[in-house]
TrEMBL record:
Pfam families with a match to the protein in the record: Amdase (PF17645)
Lineage: superkingdom: Bacteria
Organism encoding this protein: Reyranella soli
Residues annotated as transmembrane: none
InterPro entries linked: Iso_Racemase_Enz_sf, MaiA/AMDase
Protein name, as recorded: Decarboxylase
């Protein structure tokens, strides 16, 4: 019996649908696209679009909806709570944000000190540092911006640039490596990175998928996508 879930992505995102479609046939994704509410690559999406597209996904009878735009959650302290409520009220199903999913995944893996390689600007990395420290008690002890200046550039980035950044920022006191950015194609690299660096690697789309599976109470491991989706820790 197929299980159906929804994702909401910024209109410029060309990665999420590809990564979420490479799943077993029983896990089927349905997507809604959102207009930008600002003029930067990391601006939150339009609230009205979030509500409308969530409503349409609800009509498709998905079981849960994930907003795959991690940076949106970093711009207001109450963004997750307000937006999850908006999505759930519009759709009638549980909802989540990918920023929340990363925080919960790190807690589930008992990772309290992380290094972050991301397309985000230094200013947005600062917001991410504050978000994960205040909401989840997770310290971003090292970080590197990969320097993308627009959403289209992020979608075309080679994941190898994150691996090179990991070599520069990883250190013994880092519990996990984090790659925020739903439009950054990284899912196929996670398992190899974990073997190379000997610690968990968490990405936006991987963490969102993990929390989607938790919400749907699906406990089938997904090999090759990192220990988060292979071990399916609860949290």
């Amino acid at each position: 019996m197929p299980r159906h879930f929804g994702i909401l992505v910024p209109s410029t995102n060309t990665t999420c649908e590809i990564e979420f479609c490479r799943l077993p046939a029983e896990l089927q994704v349905h997507t809604g696209r959102l207009g930008k509410g600002g003029n930067t690559p990391f601006s939150p999406s339009l609230d009205a679009d979030v509500a409308y597209q969530a409503k349409l996904l609800g009509e498709a009878r998905v079981e849960v909806i994930a907003l795959a735009q991690t940076s949106a959650s970093l711009f207001a302290d109450d963004y997750d709570a307000v937006t999850v409520k908006r999505m759930t009220e519009a759709s009638g199903v549980p909802s989540l944000t990918s920023a929340e999913a990363i925080g919960r995944a790190l807690k589930a893996l008992k990772a309290s000190r992380v290094a972050m390689a991301t397309p985000y600007s230094e200013e947005v990395i600062g917001r991410a540092r504050r978000y994960y420290e205040t909401k989840y008690g997770i310290a971003v002890v090292a970080s590197e911006s990969l320097g993308a200046d627009n959403a289209y550039a992020i979608g075309k980035m080679d994941a190898g640039v994150a691996e090179a950044a990991f070599r520069r920022i990883d250190r013994p006191d880092v519990d996990a490596l984090v790659v925020p950015g739903g439009n950054f194609p990284t899912m196929d690299w996670i398992a190899a990175w974990e073997r190379q660096f000997g610690k968990p690697v968490i990405t936006t789309n991987q963490a969102a998928l993990w929390l989607v599976l938790q919400t749907m109470k699906v406990d089938t491991p997904l090999p090759g996508k990192g220990r988060l989706l292979e071990q399916l820790p609860t949290g």
